[in-house]
Amino acid sequence: MRSQIILFFTLMAFGVFGQQIRSLTLNEAVETALKNAIEIQNLKLDEDIQNAQNNEIKGTALPQISADGQLTYYTNLPQIPFPTSDFSVYQVLEREGVRDADGASIGVDKATRGIQAVSFVAPLNYQFGLSVQQLLYQPDVFIALKARESVLELARGNTAVAVDKVKESVQKAYYSVLVAQNQKSVIDANMQRLEKLSFEMGQMFKNGFVEKLDVDKISVTLNNTKTAQNQINNGIAINLAVLKNALGISQNDSIILTDPLDVATLQSDIVKLEQEVKYQNRSEYKLLETTKILQELDIKRFKLAYLPTVAAFYQLQRSGQRNEINDVNGSGPWFSFNTGLIGLSVNQPIYDGGQKKNKIQQAKLKLQKIDNNIIQLSRFIDMENSIAKISLTNAVLNLEVQKRNMELAESVFNSTTKKYQSGLGSSFEVIQTDTELQRANGSYFQALYDAYIAKVNYLKSIGKL
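^ thats the sequence. predicted structure below, dont judge the formating
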């Protein structure tokens, strides 16, 4: 009943301060981290951005339709100088033989010439139109259309690399906490045992069965164990903080790790890990392969830049002028007309000072760098896998040895304690065997942690995190 009351108030405290209690398996911890990781969220947004950019590129190959309009009113009409002459009038008069008042013939030599300002623009004008353009061929656009999926795959590859990093960090942090918590349980049990032994020695000292030196020795051992207990508690707190950060949750939340530390399962899992290295399983390798594909398309884009750009277009425009003093063909003050235009535009590059040639050369050199990076990464993966195999094998062997040592140290301690309690052994032997047992326990848990970390490193080396 008491424990239920304590649990109730503990849960109430967490609810009041907005904290959460999370029970997590390893897989659930990984899923939580992947869901909360800001870096992965941003990379997924980059995928969405790239997808939108792909649709933008696709749009450039579709018909481009636009409309425009304009309405203008001239407060002062534009004018041009226009020649004037009455030559034609005098020409008629001369042909008809008309004479002036003095009886002299009227000829074209009396015609006059001049200049007057004339405007051919009405005060009020409007114009609106519709234009359609269809790109028929443009090298860089069509290469971009071809590269859309590869560019999107590149964004996904960046996400995959980040996902593997998150998985690795979460698994290592999870195992560090889990091993430390199990080690704490053993240290706490050792502490209880030593406190009991210290009490018993104190009673035996009072009764004159042991010396003060024996009591002091057990007190020193007890103090050392308390120090180890504090260190493991601090270590757990630090490891939990690291794990919470990797999970992307509040440091105020409480975590309960539910996966057990099962040595037999660990060893059986490790046996199943004997796999060949496949470079394509590594996200970094696939990312470089995608980069290579894009670089090859870049070379092709620069080569095709020597070809012309071809586009078809059509324009329809309606214009009108308004002049109150004019009446064109009975249309009233408005004179409107339509203009249609259809055509084909071709732009052929002729000479650019060798720019395209040098761009092709640069792209080819970048491709060589990518090939070199792929070779380098392959070598690194081989090395990483080789080291991971050796480390995993040694970790498993060391774990088996440390487990036997711990079991043997525990057996020796139990036998020595029984002898001491029966009066057949000394307190020095008890303290010495207890020290050896604690050292064996520490070595065992370190070996257990190393084995789990070696497993994670090996899974990473074969791309199976």
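The radius of gyration is 46 Å.
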